[in-house]
Amino acid sequence: MAVWKFHSPFLDEVKAKGLGPALLFKTNEVVERVTAGLDIEDIRSMLRGDPAPKPNPRVRPHADGFWFHMRPTYYHNLTAGIYPSFRLGWLSTYFFAFEIITGLFLMIFYTPSPLVAYENMLNILSNVPFGRLMRDLHKLGAEMMVIVVVLHMARTFFTGSYKKPRQFTWLTGVILLAVTLVLSFSGYLLPWDQLSLWAVTIGASMVEAIQPQVVGDFVNLIVRGGPQFNEGGLLRWYLAHVLLLPVIGIIFTGVHYYKVVLHGHGLPPEVEPVGEDTAKRIPMDQRTYFMPDILTRELLLFALVTAGMIFAATFFYHAPLEPHADPLVTPLHTTAPWYFLWIQGMLKIGDKFFWGIIAPGILTGILFVLPYVEVGPSRRYGDRRVGLTMGLVLAALMAILSYMGTPKYAVASSIDQEIVAELLPQTHPGPFRQSNWGEFRTAPKTAENPTGRATYAAAEWEQAPTAALQNLLHQMEEELEIARGKAERGLRQDQGALKDGQGFMLIEDWAPGLKRVTFRIIWEGGPEDGAVCQVGAAREFCQTTFIHRESNYRQGP
Amino acid sequence: MVWRVILGTVSVVFMMVVLGFVAVTEQDRMASFERAYNARQIEVGAQLFEANCQSCHGAQGQGAEGVAPALNAVDLFDGSRLSAIEWQGTVEAYVRGAINAGRPRASADFANYPARMPAWGQAYGGPLRSDQVESLVLYIMNWGEAFKDASGNYVAAATPTPNPNAVGDDLAVELPAGDAANGQTLAQQRGCTGCHVAATAGQTLVGPAWLAAQSPDNKGVADHAAERYQAADYTGQATSPELYLLESIILPSAYIVPGANYAAPTGQSLMPNTYTQSLTKQEAADLIAYLLTVR
After folding, report:
1. Which residue in the set B29, B40, B130 is minimally distant from A551, CB to CB?
2. B13 to chain A: closest CA residue
3. d(Cα B245, Cα B289) in Å, to the nearest integer?
4. CA of B179 vs chain A CAs: smallest distance (Å)
5. Euclidean distance between CA atoms A434 and A424, whole angstroms
6. Please, which of A73, A290, A377, B272 could form a disulfide with B66 given CB 3.0 to 4.6 Å?
7. Chain B residues in contact with A295 (beta carbon < 8 A)
8. For B170-199, what is each residue's pLDDT tens digit?
9. What is the Cα–Cα distance from A43 to B161, expressed in whole angstroms?
10. ipTM for the whole complex
11. How far apart are CA A358 and CA A377, in angstroms?
């Protein structure tokens, strides 16, 4: 029987104290181990707001625990509030973790192959419970992360926190900024829709411009994963997105955090003597302890931001999903993601190699070496007028370049196509598809008109039988009005002018639940014999689409 | 501290409520997405059909005589067309397979389509991705909705009453007097000239040439009609040039001119066998009267 004899301290406790107190004692012990030093009573006293006892048990997790040793034991009172950090660094880390968790969920349902990637998206949307929510959260989190990381960098610049001794912290931060941007960009490609294919095509064609050409060709081959952008390219961008970049990000987040603990949180620039850094010498009476003050603030922020994200992704924000990638169909306008629009804007200025590679390279280089070059001792705003002005000018320049990157600037395209694309965009639902299907009225079917084709003129939008038609025709007519006006001022068609432009909508009852709609724009009288939408007709633009009763574009992807 | 704890707790509860809302509505949302996406694929399929298929199968899938069968027809959806060729799978799978792999040869019941359906799926050397083929399948299957009754079963559309004036398939039919001028118009309208008269020099005709200049033996259709029914290898029933022409129109496989490839691999004539219903007696007579003038 000796084999079965075992010693359990817990049973001894039960014998000595009874079950209830023994369980309580054991629970307390577990809590103390998990928190690396705080028992239940310590936690309750913190949350009650009791002053810290002496000796202070609340510093023990910082010394003994892994997670809290990465955080300072106490902050200076002047850095504990919103200013000067705005908690942007913490938010960056939050979104990084947020993206890893939601990304792991999406990874389960994703195969990096052009044959099935898009189908996987449809499956996530139609067949995976919480699938759309996770996808929306991941996309929304990515956009938020870019915003927060950029703001974090801007804040660090404006408070001069990159200066000695935090130069290396800034450098790792620039690496993390680059990782964030490339992470976000590489995620674009994975759904294998038109958006992803053409955004990455723009990027790949930029590296192709690198000189000498042999280098450009080589880098282009690496980026595309083959002469054509296909399964090879998708697989390596996927691996970069889920493996390489997150690993780099995690490593440098660790370095970044270590440096923050090492140097302490920088004080607001105006409270320190010029040239001194007193962040590590926090007087006893100026300390705000991490536990409980900072911790509860961060937990509150965590709860607020997470709840806000889930609320937004449930009711407002839905990640776009464009039609299946098709190398043969170029959308009317392809744009880079918004945070790379400034590069697209620069590409419109001139040479692809200089403005697409060299100039952004110089800018990135300046960011990297900034703290080692700009070594003025003072962090005070008043002493850094030149630097701060340059920062603001650069921000304004970025905004202007980003505007120049949009299709609104210096893109020659035909106004007739633009007007139709406003109503019937190639890449997102747009006003036509979101209109009520039942309001697309057709004419009675007769022998001469077997499809019940009804023709509505934009100029007579008020006579259209339904509100949806009136809206669409009115919008068409308003844009035609502008185009006619430009023609009177002598502008050309690629400058948005359309002489005597007239718009029509032709609606036919085509198949069960399916209507065929043709948007027709003619100018200068249109085709001579009055033929409608003949192939190759001059002074006429026709675009045909179909709309099904149940396609329900208003629900989002 | 107190308000932080309260606000944080409220946020977490709020988050749980929203997630609960998602959990409760998720099944409906997924079903609704699936429905909507199918409908959007039908729209894409309609575009693809217009770009690739309508030139043979007709703008609305009504088919074209002698070119490609109707797809917008109840016999495709109720399975009768497929059971005739002993297809074991679903209609949808049949349509998918036909689009993907094309048709290496005609099925027996649709022998009067001389042109073969090419392969469209990328895996079979065609131009379309699998998702595009799927959109086409959904678009074609969508036509079936028009043939469904209230309980979802396919019913034949009201069968068109046979035309009492149709010429029929009996060679003994009594024809009225023909009008050659009207016959000439009909020959254009019904597309006869597409196969029997070369529009450009050197064009290879699908059927025997009508014009003497285009015929290898330099004889026109009127002369052929006068001679062929008396030829030794003639297998039909005609006893006059008029009856020979009538037989060629309503019973094209009764006798196939030897030599050129006027027969399908099945031995049937490439000439459509549908004129028994689509021509009236008067129209047949007009055509014959016209053809007897063509030399």
Report:
1. B40
2. A307
3. 10
4. 27
5. 10
6. B272
7. none
8. 888 888 888 888 888 788 777 777 778 876
9. 89
10. 0.89
11. 31
B47, A545: Cβ pair inside 8 Å?
A: yes
- Nearest CB partner across the interface for A122, out of B1, B37, B47: B37
Residues of A whose CB is below 8 A from B51: none
Between the alpha carbon of residue A271 and those of residues A165, A275, A366, B140, the distances in Å are 17, 12, 28, 75
Cβ distance of B12 and A118 shorter than 8 Å: no
Do B42 and A122 lie within an 8 Å CB cutoff? Answer: no
Q: Which residues of B touch A297 (CB under 8 A)?
A: 4
Structure tokens at B133: 């083929």
Write the DSSP symbol of residue A266.
P
**Chain B interface test: which of A433, A514, A542 (most B C-beta within 10 Å):** A514
Alpha helices in A212-244 (DSSP H): 213-224, 231-239
Over residues B68-124, the pLDDT tens digits come to 888 998 888 988 888 877 888 899 999 999 999 998 776 655 567 777 889 999 999
Q: Which residues contact B71 (CB under 8 A, 6 or more apart)?
A: B57, B61, B63, B95, B140, B143
A542–chain B Cβ distance below 8 A for any pair: no
- Cite the DSSP H helix spans in A374-463: 385-405, 415-423, 430-433
Contact A230, A197 (CB under 8 A): no
Residue A51 contacts B where some CB pair is shorter than 8 Å: no
**Maximum CA extent, chain B:** 113
The 10s digit of each residue's pLDDT in B51-67 is 999 888 988 898 887 78
| Mean pLDDT, rounded, for B141-169 | 77
**Sheet (strand A502-511) strand order:** A454-457, A502-511, A514-522, A540-548
Cα torsion B192, B193, B198, B200: sign: negative
Chain B contact for A514 (CB, 8 A cutoff): yes
**B136 to chain A, closest Cα gap in Å:** 13
Q: Is A310–B19 a contact, with Cβ atoms under 8 angstroms apart?
A: yes
What is the CA B111 to chain-centroid distance, rounded?
12
Q: How many CB atoms are closer than 10 A to CB A393? A: 10
Check residue A311 and give its pLDDT. Answer: 97
Interface contact A511-B40, CB threshold 8 A:
no
Q: Mean pLDDT across the stretch A184-212?
A: 87
CA atoms of B30 and A123, how far apart (whole Å): 9
For residue A517, list chain B residues with Cβ-Cβ distance below 8 A. none
Residue range A22-44: average pLDDT? 92
Buried b (16+ CB within 10 A) or exposed e, B191-229: ebeebbbbeeeeeebbbbbbbbebbeeebbbbbbbeebb
Among A429, A549, A425, A542, which residue's Cα sits nearest to residue B42? A549
- Shortest distance between the Cα of B278 and any Cα of chain A, in A, equals 18
Mean pLDDT of A449-462: 90
The token pair that represents A132 in the structure block: 């759309």
